[in-house]
Amino acid sequence: MLPRILSNYLDSVGQEIAKCNKAYIENYDEEILSSSRVNLRLRLRFSQNHLLEINEAIIVQGNSLEFLDYR
Fold first, then answer.
1. How do residues 13-29 score in pLDDT, each as one tens digit?
2. What secondary structure letter does DSSP report for 71?
3. In principle, which of 23, 53, 58, 70 could form an S-S bond with 44, CB 3.0–4.6 Å?
4. 29-61 in b/e burial notation, b at 16+ Cβ within 10 A?
């Protein structure tokens, strides 16, 4: 089970992406590595065929999130 802060973050990312009516979600992957670490991978395709790819490595440190890496 994920800590609430991490679960809330992932939920909020998913909700914000769902609001993008000009983008198609090609990929949304939450890779849960442990109860305190997640890799998030997104691929969004926009109407002009532009692509936005986001990868984040996230851990819980105490009562906050730490973003280890992104691209």
1. 999 998 988 889 999 99
2. -
3. 23
4. eeeeeeebbbebebbbeeeeeeeeeeebbbebe
* Domain segments of the chain as ranges: 4-70
Q: How far apart are CA 26 and CA 62, in angstroms?
A: 33
Q: What is the pTM of this model?
A: 0.86
Q: How far apart are CA 25 and CA 71, in angstroms?
A: 17
